[in-house]
Amino acid sequence: MTTAAATSSPVVSGTTPLPTSSSSGSSAGAANALASSQIAGNFQSFLTLLTTQLQNQNPLSPLDTNQFTQQLVEFAGVQQQLNTNDSLATLVSLQQTAQSTQALGFVGKTAVVNGSTAIMTNSTATWQLSAPSNSTVNINITSSTGQTVFTGTYAMNAGNNQPFTWNGKGSDGTQLPDGSYKLTATAKDSSGNSVAIKTQVEGVVSSVDLTQSPPLLSIGGQTFTVNQIQSIVN
């Protein structure tokens, strides 16, 4: 499709230092330790009650076998609950480590995410548009304050991830400053029917916030989870 400029460059550049610790992991560990302590306390109380009952039962009327069996089953249930709790804590810890490792691997990479707001750098901003059919597309670009700065109409073929690069010049030809700009695209096919246009933006993953669960990737001043990344350009 025709674009507002012929050149393109990364929407976002540079990296920032990463956090060195995660409070979410420590919080989860603290919560698990508290839960285990409470269960362990109940477990010890159960043992004390059962032992006392056995020591003080009437020799002429000993504890009913069925009741004793039931109490042993409850005993085993408490022990199983303790073991399950420890296993779940291990699984959560492993999952958090895997998420953090995966997120760190994206730092410095150019990622494509669903969205309509791009960062213009060096007078260049790029979006990727997808259309299910040949269409006439009306492009409207607004600044961070919501002011319309550029409008244009273009012919667009059916296809995914078609780049639209804007050179930062307003409709009146004025060169606008670098910053955040939002693109809205509406389209119609040759029969005049509305066509849904999907917009995506790309940018360099500049940092990762490991204090959040799941970790958040910073792309052009916006945050995204790993699951929101559609593809990696390089």
The computed structural class is: alpha+beta
Strand content is 25-35%
State the helicity in percent bands. 25-40%
Uncertain ranges: 5-25
Radius of gyration (CA) equals 30 Å
Give a count of the beta strands, DSSP E runs of length 2 or more: 12
The rounded distance between the terminal residues' Cα atoms is: 23 Å
Q: How do the helices and strands follow one another from N- to C-terminus? A: HHEEEEEEEEEEEE
The geometry reads as elongated
Count of DSSP H/I helices = 2
Mean pLDDT: 78
The major β-sheet equals:
7 strands, antiparallel
List the helices and strands and how they pair.
Layout: H1 23-55, H2 65-104, E1 110-114, E2 117-120, E3 125-131, E4 135-143, E5 148-156, E6 159-166, E7 179-188, E8 194-195, E9 198-209, E10 216-219, E11 222-224, E12 229-232
Antiparallel strand pairs: 1-9, 1-12, 2-7, 3-6, 3-9, 4-5, 4-7, 7-8, 9-10, 10-11
Describe this structure in words.
By secondary structure, the chain is an alpha+beta fold. It has helices at residues 23-55, 65-104, and strands spanning 110-114, 117-120, 125-131, 135-143, 148-156, 159-166, 179-188, 194-195, 198-209, 216-219, 222-224, 229-232. 31% of the residues lie in helices and 33% in strands. β9 and β10 (216-219) form a beta hairpin. α1 packs antiparallel against α2 (65-104).
